[in-house]
Amino acid sequence: MEEVIVKEANPSTSTSELRIICRVCQKQFSQYTCPRCNSRYCSLQCYKRHSLRCTESFMRENVMEELKQVQPDDESKRKMLDILKRFHSEEEMSSAADDDDDDESMLSEEIIQKVLSGQEVKLEDLSHKEIKQFRRAIASGELSKLIEPWTPWWRKPSARSISLSPEGCQLVKSLDEQSSTLEDNVNEIPVGPESPLPPLRQLMHGDPSPLLAVHVVDVLYSYCFTLRLYNGDWHSDPLGAATVALSMSKVMGDLWRPETVGEALTACLEETCSPVYRHAGGFSFGIGLVDDVICLLYLGTNALICLLCDLQRLIQTSERTLKSEKIVKTERSQTSRRLRSADKKVFFLMCWVHEQPAGAWSTLASIVEMEKASLSQLGLGGKHFKAERKGVQQSKLLIEEV
After folding, report:
1. Which of 62, 243, 275, 336 is the most buried (most CB within 10 A)?
2. Residue 46: pLDDT band by 50, 70, 90 thresholds?
């Protein structure tokens, strides 16, 4: 197809400019040139239509370039090696029971020995048959069964004995204790604040809102949802995890201020059952998260402070990650503003939680248990939830008493 050239007079100057018509739609002036075939086009839509070979190669090169930049850390390599070793062990047990399955082994002996010796195995090291069987194992869920299920820290016995200073910060530890903690996985229980928490009177004038207890429920649910979704490892994608937390929490996301526990839980369950997160487990998964909230409330002040501190750490890490992301400047600015706002809210809640009497949390946990029973009876699966007015009013009165 020949290019159409139009000579257009420029009224601001005495010269003329040559304008080339888009070779795809032949309606608009072309503004861009394909770096591969030098075809002129006017828009992204026309670029996609001008040559399938160009667009496919462009996408392939971008993907390969991104993959080259993604370098797995030592911890990720170790986890994958453990998975492959367990998979190989199961294969050997299966082969011992049925010798006819020897030819169906997913990995060759050479690859298996490399894995067991700790050497790095790349996709190109595998044969076509091995790649096919490996993908089949992923699709069937065989490999996922070998991943050890994550146990939330708030469900562990050690969560019942969290200690913080009277000022709400970490206790001073000896060097021997610090070394032992690092060896035993320092992140089993999130550490508390490094500095003493300031009193609320330094952060605000007047009395705090009586609805803060409701906001705590909203934030706890969003934290539990995020960690469950990321299998406890938000460090693998802090920006993505923070985005999930803010989208789940109406309080942190600055979308709405629930006035009762029933409203807060209903909104969280609606989001959990939405098309965006339905794959996580829907209504039954959401009810399980309400159990997580109840568990955390019964653990008391120190556990809640450590949780909020971990959530603040997640948000601050995502802020630093955002600076290196290749996104539009306006979008980066908006996201940064939302993260800073959420950071301040979480810190304020942390200070507020620190000043509440210990008995407040068992009372709030009882209210959440009542709301959970009411929501469970609805049994609506992924449909929208509506709290009855009587239940809403009852929750509101109980919150005011807290």
Report:
1. 243
2. confident
